[in-house]
Amino acid sequence: MKPEVVFEDLGPAPYKEAWNYQEQLLKQLQEKKLHLTEGKKDIPDGGYLLFCEHPHVYTLGRSGKENNLLIPPERLPQEHISYFHTNRGGDITYHGPGQIVGYPIIDLDLLQIGVKKYIALIEETIIRTLAEIGLGAGKLKDATGVWMHLDGNQMPKKICAIGVRVSRGITMHGFAFNVNTDLRFFDYINPCGFTDKGVTSVEKETGRKWNFEEMKQRVRKQFGEVFQVHLTGQ
Q1: For 38-95, what is each residue's pLDDT tens digit?
Q2: Lowest CB count within 10 Å: 52, 54, 179, 190, which one?
């Protein structure tokens, strides 16, 4: 029987609110795992998959460098951009409208996988989603995420960034998939700390905007199949 993972689409959500909600769900799963919440039937064994879309925000991971933010922090309010130091891995990235942000809060021990395998499965989820619409993408050695233009003729371009935290075997944070994202906001940072690689989006690669809700359903379906979990909820 497949583990149950509850799916919840938060819609547009400020970054800090979504972060706080993740921490809340993470704590619940940890307490259940430690048998501190006997009788709590409403907490799924497998965990949660949250989708949301953030207003413009830059987030810096634990190993990130401040100088990868290329504009003075005091200018950010003028550009209507928030900025947060986070407890995920990785360096600096951008979240904004037109980007599917996925936060899996799941028990890796229940799925019997480690962190490297977990990240590889997220990458595979997005690769399969892109393949569904006719776009070829893959993995890049020594660089997490999903990349395009890997034939050597162009600079590799990231279409999905990944940054996670794992606590007592349970994950939080996750991935950011550029669908109809305004890529100009990446000009203010060295995305994920790279200066020799680019970024792209589904819109840029195909020359048209995509139905955002439809794309979320594609990612959700592929996540369930790749992770072999039973997704419930809307």
Answers
A1: 555 678 888 999 999 999 999 999 989 999 999 999 999 999 999 999 999 889 999 9
A2: 190
Residue 13 has a pLDDT of 98
Q: Give the chain's length.
A: 234
Q: What CA–CA distances, in Å, run from 92 to 58, 86, 87, 189, 192?
A: 7, 10, 12, 7, 5
Q: Which two tokens stand for residue 137?
A: 């993408």
Q: What whole-number distance in Å separates Cα of residue 108 and Cα of residue 36?
A: 19
Active site residue 160: no
Residue 223 to residue 234: CA distance in whole angstroms: 14
For residue 216, what is the enclosing H or E element?
helix 212-227
Q: Which residue bears the tokens 């893959």?
A: 138
Give the integer Cα–Cα distance in Å for 195 and 192. Answer: 9
Which residue, among 8, 57, 17, 13, has the nearest Cα to 181 in the 3D structure? 57
Domains and CATH numbers, the chain: 4-232 (3.30.930.10)
pTM listed for this prediction = 0.95
